[in-house]
Amino acid sequence: MLTFESGGVGHQSHGTFKHDIDLCISDDFFKTHKIILQGGNKFVSQKSFILAAKPIDINEQTIALFVSNIDSGYTVFHEAELPLKGIRDKTYSLVATSSNQLWINVRHAGTHEEYGNIYTSDATGTRFNLSLMHNARDEFGICDISKIEASTGVFIANYYDSVNSES
Fold this sequence. Notes:
single chain, 4-stranded antiparallel sheet, 0% helix
């Protein structure tokens, strides 16, 4: 699996999203390939899921998250359903996975780099609920949250409280 820019030369640019980059698979070392997500620019595969970012607005660099799971053979992607409607997303960070759930940090458009919201998925990996607002993160997407290995679904996290405090 890789991302492929039709007509592209050299290495792909990692700084921005483009519409003409696709997520592809191959079983012959890419002598031939099959597009599994048109516009799928960046991806990560973890346990039972593959997550891919697809650009929505190139000028604003806003994106949508698409998810595929083991049940579809990792070839059918569905757009992630987040509860905050009408808000565009800027970045996604995968926080943790289990065999049947995902935890992601989403920085929405118009928000500061210092925080994102934590969402927890259902078993399909496509429908998410808000778990924690304003989770602290850095400009590289490293989130201040740790999974407690002895307890399923339990995390310790810091959140950015100055969002609501007076200066």
